[in-house]
């Protein structure tokens, strides 16, 4: 026969736990912080008002004299380079992951062989394999700063791309730089000059070891509706009625792949756009310039379809241009909607689906 003392209990019940908790709180309220910490620092959280305390107290003053050495650095957590078990969601390859709108001053080389420094917005991304948690994004910025002091060209962008493909152990990568490029433009008749600012972007993409270069330009012009022009002239001729055709500020985003050995300068692409559609918006205007602009618009009335094809004609004739895309938006003064067109040459820019906000980005805010 097995005998068990009557006071032995296999496991404490809730009442026993409550009694123990009350005892522990009573003791902690009368004990010193050192005694509590010696028993268990977590006991401090049992005291009223200290439920979320982080005893022992942490230092609150910034340690200005503290220096990081290699030994300390080795103890620091690095979640982005952690094990596969840390991946959340589907273990799928990411085509692009990186940074956007990283800003820094960059030097550019002009067609006249002069240099200028412009504030640039950088987007830098790499592909991420399905089995990797993430990337250290600061390495992209460090790669750019390493080369930012040099005269900036595609060759320097390539150097930055080389760095972060190596640093981030990636197979594909992309760098895009956006900036506003100034050019001094002469008025049509008065001889005044002023700076026109052109929104440009340079893009370098590496996919499966193949590198391709792209240039993007937003060209802003005035578009006079041919239909409205003819109707206005009809009213004048048939009824002696003064009428004006409607014109509107318009934007074409011209994206080109750069091919061959010859350089396509920023100024070259601007000149190409101006040859196609000469009614570029003006900077400095006196009365004679305003009259000249009205005459220039009357001599070059265009629908949005015409604009895309006129740009296309000039792009096809330039041997430095490979695949390209023209996205045009005529921001109507007659209608409460815009007229838009897209023309692509080659497979690079062909797409069945469009970004729902694509045309919203073509507004020129001046």
Written overview of the protein:
- The structure is a single chain.
- β4 and β5 form a beta hairpin.
- The chain is an alpha+beta fold and 366 residues long.
- It contains 9 helices and 9 strands.
- It has 2 domains: 91-170, no CATH class; 180-365, Roll (Urate Oxidase).
- The model has no long low-confidence stretch (mean pLDDT 88).
- InterPro entries: GTP_cyclohydrolase_FolE2, GTP_cyclohydrolase_FolE2/MptA.
- Keywords: Hydrolase.
- It catalyses: GTP + H2O = 7,8-dihydroneopterin 3'-triphosphate + formate + H(+).
- The record marks 225 as: May be catalytically important.
What labels describe this entry?
single chain; 366 residues; alpha+beta; Urate Oxidase; 2 domains; nine-stranded mixed beta sheet; GTP_cyclohydrolase_FolE2/MptA; hydrolase; EC 3.5.4.16
Output the CATH homologous superfamily of the largest domain.
Urate Oxidase
How is the main sheet built? Answer: 9 strands, mixed
Strand order of the largest sheet: 3-1-2-4-5-6-7-8-9
**What is the structural class?**
alpha+beta
How large is the share of residues in beta strands?
Answer: 25-35%
| Count of all domains | 2
State the helix count: 9
The CATH topology of the largest domain: Urate Oxidase
Helicity, as a percent range: 25-40%
Instruction: Kindly provide the name of the CATH class of the largest domain.
Output: Alpha Beta
> Cα-atom Rg, whole angstroms?
33 Å
Determine the oligomeric state from the structure. single chain
The pLDDT mean sits at 88
Q: First CA to last CA: what distance?
A: 99 Å
User: Could you tell me the number of beta strands?
Assistant: 9
What is the general shape?
Answer: elongated
Helix/strand order, N-terminal first: HHHEEHEHEEEHEHHHEE
What would you say the CATH architecture of the largest domain is?
Roll
* Low confidence ranges: none
Site (May be catalytically important): 225
Pathway: Cofactor biosynthesis; 7,8-dihydroneopterin triphosphate biosynthesis; 7,8-dihydroneopterin triphosphate from GTP: step 1/1
Organism: Roseovarius nubinhibens
Protein name: GTP cyclohydrolase FolE2
